[in-house]
Batch of 2 targets.
Target 1
Amino acid sequence: MSHRILKIKRRYIAVKCRPEYALDMDKVYESIEEMFRRLFGEVFLVDSRLRRIRVKRLDESIIIVSCSHIYLGKVLAAITLVNSVDGEAAALDVITVSGTLRALKRKIRLRVS
Amino acid sequence: MRRFADFWIKITQYDEALPFVERLCKLGYTAACVETEMQGVEWQALTQKASEVNLALVRKKVVEAKRRMDVLEACRKKPPKSILTVRPLSREAFMTACRDERVDTVYVDVHNVEIDRHVIQVLKNFLEITLDDFLRYMMDKEMFKRLVTTLQVIKKKRIRCIISSGASNPLMLRSPRQLASIPEIIETQTENSLDMVSKNPFTILTGGGYLD
């Protein structure tokens, strides 16, 4: 209910994982969240409204996360500083950022094609 | 439109270089500085290969300096068309590297040096921080604290700074926007942080005549 009252502008971030094989997307999201928590703490994590968006028919190596537009820079920093997922060396590349999910999907299609 | 440069990548052999070039191009860079031992034909072949994908490669020499004399000697022996970065291991070397204009950038290794008011007074060169440092010191609380403090000083004193990847394998490369997000840890304006991967490196590359 409080989420409806405190309406925020969101940003949707498409993140591609490298290497593409054998990476569990749940673990990838966990590592982003963990990095954000380590850098900025629990309060900012809640305030950033960081969450994973599940989208059908999307490349398996791409994960979409959303956050408050105020925290975009901080979320990008957390994504940048992830260098391992579940003990395996990995890197997360931000493909594109958008204000709506629809535009994000369109941008991903353009980038991938 | 902004152009982006990765100011420090480490490549030892020609075979290793091609994935780097491919990746840098894909991430949207138009220039990169390479610390390498490659000589003559191999280096020419690599720059040729990179120019085919609109990527300019510039050689970079990184010199560790313990004393003032080490910095001065490195400046005297500076190869032409090569970026000179000094990695000071003492405060004395740090001060000298900061004020000698033959040095292009001064790499701030927080393990050895800290920026204080005396350094700021004599500072004429660009400082350089790498993503590699952040990844390396992520687990070391004390070092990470020093890194963030350095960023705060850079922001507060408006010091000209460059952020590079310091990558020794392609997995460590990040897009320019991602590199620029690192100063945003401490609420730096996006425009200012983007300058650290575009305007500032190109000031050196074009001003020093390193780009043809």
Target 2
Amino acid sequence: MKEIKLVFTGSMGAGKTTAISAISEIPVINTDVRTIGEDSQRKKTTTAAMDYGELTLDDGNKLRLYGTPGQERFQYMWPILIKGALGLIILVDDANSHPLKDLELFINYFRDHINNIPTVVGITRRDLEQGPNIQEYHDYLHKEGLQLPIFSIDARQRENTILMIQALTAMVEFN
Amino acid sequence: MNISTNALENDDKFIFIAMLAMAADDLDIFWNFNDQNPDLILVDIEQAEGKKFWLKYHIDKQLIAFAHENLVDAPWFLEKPVQLEKLKSLLKLVSENYSSDDEVEIEIEIEKEPIVEAIPVVEAIPVVEAIPIVETNEVFDPSLFLTGVLLKSETLCIKVANFAPLYFLPEQKSCFSTVDINFRHLDSEQLKFFEAEISQVETETLAADDIATRSDLYKYPIEGFLWVTTLSSSKGRLLDGISVDETKILLKQWPDFSILVHEIAHIRLAAIMVRRSLTLRNLADRTQIPIETVVNFFNACFITQLVEIEKNNSEILTNNESRYSSEQHSIFKSILNKLT
């Protein structure tokens, strides 16, 4: 059995746990703790170590779905989780106060991995129309020399997570 | 009157030609794109070549400056990117100027190109530096479909047969409808609406305030409508001026498929088109996707301004070595098989 894993990263409250739940065949195992600082106003608990979900593929291999902790104080977990990942999904909460800065944080942190594994960006809570328009996210990535799919997604919708995986698949096929 | 361009980037040029054709209905004078004998020349003064041309000829020739800002104080100026309303206003202004200066000459031009007879837009636009589509002589003319109405950028109530009206507010870049439309799962009735021909479309002027007070409307970004109307009415016909075998195309960025009607073939096309500048024929060959699907996808990307037309023949990606293995691809495919 090989370890096959997809990693979901992104800002706190962006919907990583929800997106994993949408496709996991087991209830997502998470390690929530109370949030501290400004974040506690928005969300009572957040993931401390990781979220974990699973999907058994037809050949018996398990796809492991990992969600990184959102708050920066748990960053020490990020390199552990990303090691050996098949693909990376970055989720950004558009309704957060500085979503472009959030994206920048994750792009900078995972930059080396983005160069080596297919990566897609999902922008959540776009319906609230509080954040930048989608073009501003593209412009930021272009400035960084990156050409990644960016989708406005609802993490609760299973088909949105599937869309991101379809994009990862196509990137691998034609890269 | 004849108009041509100087130093415009290829995609600007194609958009300008398309807009010129769409503006034709609302103008008293027929404007013909003609590189050979132009009365007026649209010059991209932000390009070195265009700047040089402007400095050399702006006194002797009738020029329109094309830029983001009118830094040269040109009497005739068109702001980038080309917008239909601004183009129409400019051409009206130029026409008025011409008719007061040289009425006789204009009358002669009008006799040459009588505007009383509807001139098909496809004939009005000469094919510029391109070879027509190989399979068919038919071209996709957006002005003959609902797409053309949306491209006019007028605040309108749009009605097609018995469908719920669509309220189009270009200043908000949005459409409004009483119907909750899921672009990911359109039914056949909705598709009929989106592929409506212009003869089936009725429009009424609309005040934006009428919409602001209504609480029963769903709001949608205009891109979703431009995309779906183009995708569904193209039917394998390519936009004029583009060649399946000659024109190399690059996608500027991934379309936001989460809000656009799409199929898996479109995602695969996007993945290759953001990386490589290829002709539509090459794309069909490499992906094994039918050319009709490739053409429809290209048209939709073009209308939503997502494509760049490449000037040179080199592929944009210098390193053609794949970073990923076939094993990685087969794992991803098995994940999708499980999920879908």
